[in-house]
Amino acid sequence: MLQPCPWMPHTLQCGHTTPQPGTLLVLLHGWGARAEDMEMLAQALGDCRPHMLTLAPQGFEPAEGQPGARQWFDVQGMTPHNRQQRIDAALPRLAAWISAAQALTGVTWHNTVLAGFSQGASMALALVHAHADLASRVLAFSGRPPSRTAAPAHATALHFFTGALDPLLPVEALRESVLQLHNAGNRVTLDVAEQLGHGINGPLLDRARAYLTAE
User: Fold this and answer.
1) Which of 100, 103, 105, 153 is nearest to 128 (CA)?
2) Is residue 81 part of a domain?
3) Which DSSP string corresponds to 6-43?
4) Reduced to 3 states, what is the DSSP secondary structure of residue 158?
5) How far apart are CA 24 and CA 53, in angstroms?
6) Residue 153 — very low, low, confident or very high, per pLDDT cuts 50/70/90?
7) Is CB count within 10 Å lower at the N or C end of the chain?
8) Residues 16, 118, 129, 154: which is the catalytic one?
9) The domain that contains 125 carries what CATH number?
10) Which residues pair with 12 in a beta bridge?
11) Is residue 148 a part of any domain in this protein?
């Protein structure tokens, strides 16, 4: 169960802390949510590898009109033309947070996994796009890749999970983006739940667990 982390402010944790963790799993929530809402992912993925430590930070900004809720970047007035700029502006702070967590736990990027939902997934994808040595794997649930998908390949494995009925992320557009990433030489997968909208279900979690336990 996620509990307040005593050594990282505004962060929840569960799993292995001592001795040094073997894997660091970072969970990034969606817009208008909180770290507590990542409990399902923490329970589903937190035991996939030996000595795994799960950390779930709170979004750095309050979500307007949602008391107590958080966000990684503001969506008010957001358009397809300024969305990537807003994500890019939020990246340095989150990248610094992950680097601090790695330094405090002694876990390198090779054993760091980022998992996010919706806005959190988009942040995770943008992070590894901008920083080739931040995480070895991303589990992106209902998240969009950066608009610059034709970038050179990175060592990070990218796993996309989405619902075929997601009104916020058209599945064909995501398929095209994933194909571009694949053609650029990235390690990438796409799993689609046919009767699912904007959310996460059991079969997608099973696939995510399979990717984590394969190594």
Assistant:
1) 153
2) no
3) SSSTTEEEEE--SS--SEEEEEE--TTB-GGGGHHHHH
4) strand
5) 5
6) low
7) N
8) 118
9) 3.40.50.1820
10) 4, 56
11) yes
